[in-house]
Amino acid sequence: MTADSHALTTGEHTSVAGLAHDRRGISNPILGMLLFITSEVMFFGGLFAAYFSTRAANKPWPPAQFSEILNPFSLILVATVILIASSFTCQLAVAAIRRDDRRGFLRNMAVTFVLGVLFLVLQAYDYSLLFGEGMTIGSGPFGTTYFTLTSFHGAHVFGGVIMLGVILYRGMSGQFSARHHDAVEAASLYWHFVDVVWILLFTILYFL
Amino acid sequence: MATHALAPDASAYSRGLLYEWLTTTDHKKIGIMYVINSFIFFLIGGVLALVVRTELAQPGLQFLTDERVYNEMFTMHATLMIFLFVIPMLAGLGNYAVPLMVGAPDMAFPRINALSFWMLPLAGILLVSSFFTGGAAAAGWTSYPPLSGEGPLNSPGAGQDLWIVGLILIGTSSILGAINFLVTIFKMRAPGMTLFRMPIMVWTILVTSVLVLMATPVITSALVMLFIDRNYGGTFFDPSGGGSATLYQNVFWFYSHPAVYVMILPAMGVVSEVLPVFSRKPLFGYKAFVFATAAIGALGFSVWAHHMFTTGSVFLPFFSLLTFMIAVPTGVKMFNWVFTLFRGQLTFSTPLIFAIGFLTMFLIGGINGAFSASVPVDFALHDTYWIVAHIHYVLFGGSVFGIFAGIYYWFPKMTGRMLDEGLGKIQFVLMFVGFNLTFFPMHMLGIQGMPRRIADYAANAGWNDWNRAATIGGFVIALSILPFIWNVFVSLRNGRVAGDDPWEANTLEWATTSPPPPYNFDRLPEIRSERPLFDARHGRIGH
């Protein structure tokens, strides 16, 4: 930590106020990211609560005109597999940088980035198909909840992709090593979170 | 030969003062900017309150001709006071105090800290600018649909949308701030400072941050849904389209009830720092206080629906019981404070006087709140001026008196100068009298059935005298702010020099210079209790 380079002088019995962070346990950036994810869980919790309360009040669900529109065994399954796979490649990247394998880290991170972009492209295409069949955010509670939940998830994937892009860029300029890669760990936690939200969304929207 | 200065305050080359403040990541400068920014919105919100009170001084519409403008006034008054004054003011005091109190050089993420702050003036500008873009939000600070809907008879203008965006920004600022506080408190405490040796202020900020972290995203989701309903044809809250209006109320209050603890817990922390210092005693029952704070935080998540008793869609016995239970940990705290004062060697400096103002007024606010926790009573009092009285006894009598206690307490640390005691006491007397003159009559108005959020009332309803009294009180409160502003200006120039520790206080911020250097400390005393400076002064007496 660079902050230690100008550690301040102390008396014999005094301890220096932590310019020294507490090195034991979890690091500051990772704890910060976990707390941020906690708040994101609550945000999606609010949206899910709205979804279930709306769903409970509207029978039948889905409404008759959209009864067959959400088919899980279609393009969306491909997108799902892609996003889940990206979580694995992301973790492979983390494992690589932990053992100081920068080449493996960059390769896996690049694949993760591309898979993330691919997911977004597929989701956009899927939206266009749904629009084509007349389902929009304005078409009743079904459309409102579907597009709100999935588009906010998509926005989070977009944020995650930017995060991965920054990590990739920093990795290519050699900023990460086995000792110094908190940002990689934090970004991967976020990416896994985004993945878990999608698994929940996919299960609830397409199967339940 | 040139030597490299390693002093942490030595910057590479000198910058202009303005540039320095605009780009700073120093938690102390950011904290002070929080306080100034919040005070500006306190003044704006106060002017709006005076407009409301002036209109209500007598029956009929005299001052405002358009009732919609009246609605904008009380909506923006509450919005500014809650989201741009009380919450960020306390966050600002915490921003200033917490790293110092735990012996850290700065917050854990200084740049995110600056980001949290700069979102606030931006959000404030958005909110206030709505007055000039065809009318501000006018659906009350709660913005219930359908009142806040996009229909021509509801809230058709851009004001409501600016309100939503402004609140989302403020919420994001709060969440980032909470993350910063939590990591700072968990990871950056000085050696020897165990959790149970933290100053109470730090404990209250910890619990507050947990509330902000878990509750604020939920109102963000509510606001997002409201925005979608208004702008993209969504039907979340539109019963005619298959949505539910009470859904909004549930999601809204899931945040906004914990928000009242966000607004009171740090003020309790300030008071719990002030009382021991000015009664020369440790806080009575430190651990009980900590557990009571945690209990208030936990219960705070399970009482939101007491705002919705009359909707008929919530389980009344559950929410009533849990609301009453909040009184238990709050009562514990009252006991802590009173017994801290009991047989203390009291010095009636301004911070202590404001703290006692907090104790007495918050007690009334707690008791009149318990009335509406009872379901049958609440059915009678719901949406009357009783509720307005309650919220102001808690948020003005509680939070605002606590905030001024904190400002008088830490001003010497922030600036190196003492505020004037005489002017401080004049401010207190005016504020205390004006406050009670304004808000005590509202109890009577509430019992007599006067609804809140009305611009006009019948002349023969019997509400005239109490309303006139409340309006006079409102102007007395406004008057009380003048000696404070004067005090700050005079004291900054000519105030008595404070020295490191003018109050002979207990906590680490007083172990460094006033104002502290960047990165705060070059050495720290040993920390063996929650009062390290007391220990350093008096050896280990009493341990």
Notes on the structure:
- The complex is a heterodimer of chains A (208) and B (543).
- Chain A is an all-alpha fold and 208 residues long.
- Chain A has one domain (28-207): Four Helix Bundle (Hemerythrin (Met), subunit A), CATH 1.20.120.80.
- Chain A has five helices and no strands.
- In chain A, helix 4 (140-172) packs antiparallel against helix 5 (182-207).
- Chain B is an all-alpha fold and 543 residues long.
- Chain B has a single domain (23-538), classed as Cytochrome C Oxidase, Chain A, CATH 1.20.210.10.
- In chain B, 66% of the residues lie in helices and 0% in strands.
- Chain B contains 15 helices and no strands.
- Mean pLDDT of chain B is 94; it is low at 1-5.
- Classes of the chains: A mainly alpha (208), B mainly alpha (543).
- Chains A and B meet through helix 1 and helix 4 of A and helix 5, helix 6 and helix 7 of B.
Task: Write a brief structural summary.
Chain A has five helices and no strands. Chain A has 208 residues and is an all-alpha fold. Chain A has one domain: Cytochrome c oxidase, subunit III, four-helix bundle (Four Helix Bundle (Hemerythrin (Met), subunit A), Up-down Bundle), CATH 1.20.120.
Count of DSSP H/I helices of chain B? 15
Which topology of chain B does CATH recognise?
Cytochrome C Oxidase, Chain A
CATH structural class of chain B: Mainly Alpha
Largest sheet of chain A: none
- Give the oligomeric state: heterodimer
Query: Which fold name fills CATH's third level, the topology of chain A?
Result: Four Helix Bundle (Hemerythrin (Met), subunit A)
Distance between the termini of chain B: 52 Å
Structural class of chain A: mainly alpha
Largest sheet of chain B: none
How many domains is the backbone of chain B divided into?
A: 1
The CATH superfamily title of chain B: Cytochrome c oxidase-like, subunit I domain
- Can you count the beta strands of chain B? 0
